[in-house]
Design goal:
Order of helices and strands: EEHEHEHEEHHEHEEEEH
Distance between the termini: 40 Å
Structural class: alpha/beta
Shape: globular
Helix content: 25-40%
Largest sheet: 9 strands, mixed
């Protein structure tokens, strides 16, 4: 069954299906990391039904997005959402394996990805087939994602992703192996006291060494309500001037 939701009242609409992995908070959080400006060429590696691209276009309408996805059902739904929102001139979706993309090298200023988090040796597997494919390295590994990002991102361009803190060492090493230098790191915690549950990282293609660790993104206030930053990420508060 298809489901449609608005990113904000009167905003872009995104779609998801019961038969595919349902988009989660991590995709919304990742959308807050890239520094967007008009004219950017963006590639979403493993775009699913296109939510991340929609989020970026909602924030900055004057960019172009190309989504790569291996699941035909997800591509069909993403293409439906693109048409529904009238974004055919700014959002293209391609049915492609990241290891065999036909796109020219260095085509994008920014690549983004919400990759599978867990290695097959981690012991974490979901009983749900769609969730297992999206969250475990069954079809796509961290190495495949980083190689694809390195090939498709122009020299000096950025690669942004969301990942799990327990695999930070794997992430940093794999990025450097592919000439993607980690530049900005932000941990995500449920509360101020809680240990990080996610991380957001920006790497630079061919960048110089030097990593900035930014203020953590806290999702919840002491009284249990969403933080003001999380509310802004979900378009429930206006960004202050």
């Amino acid at each position: 069954m298809e489901h449609w939701e608005e990113l904000k009242p009167g905003g872009l609409r995104f779609a998801w299906s019961d038969g595919l992995f349902r988009p989660g908070t991590d995709t919304f959080l990742l959308s807050s990391l890239p520094r967007l400006k008009p004219g950017l060429r963006v590639c979403d590696l493993g775009c699913g039904t296109g939510l991340l691209g929609m989020l970026l276009l909602q924030k900055e309408p004057n960019i172009s997005v190309t989504g790569l996805e291996i699941q035909p059902e997800a591509v069909a739904l993403a293409e439906k959402a693109v048409k529904e929102n009238g974004l055919q001139d700014r959002f293209a979706v391609r049915l492609e394996n990241l290891r065999e993309s036909g796109l020219p090298a260095g085509s994008f200023d920014l690549t983004v990805c919400n990759p599978p988090y867990y290695s097959l040796q981690s012991g974490f597997t979901s009983e749900d087939a769609a969730r297992r494919k999206a969250r475990s390295e069954i079809v796509c590994t961290l190495a495949i994602v980083c190689r694809a990002a390195a090939r498709l991102t122009r020299w000096g361009g950025a690669f942004c992703l969301v990942y799990k803190p327990e695999r930070l060492t794997d992430l940093l090493c794999t990025l450097r192996e592919n000439a993607l230098e980690p530049k900005r790191l932000r941990f995500v915690s449920q509360t101020v006291e809680a240990a990080p549950s996610l991380l957001l990282l920006e790497a630079r293609r061919g960048g110089k060494p030097g990593l900035t660790i930014e203020t953590p993104l806290v999702l919840q206030t002491p009284d249990g309500s969403p933080s003001s930053e999380l509310e802004r990420i979900y378009f429930r508060q206006e960004v202050p001037l």
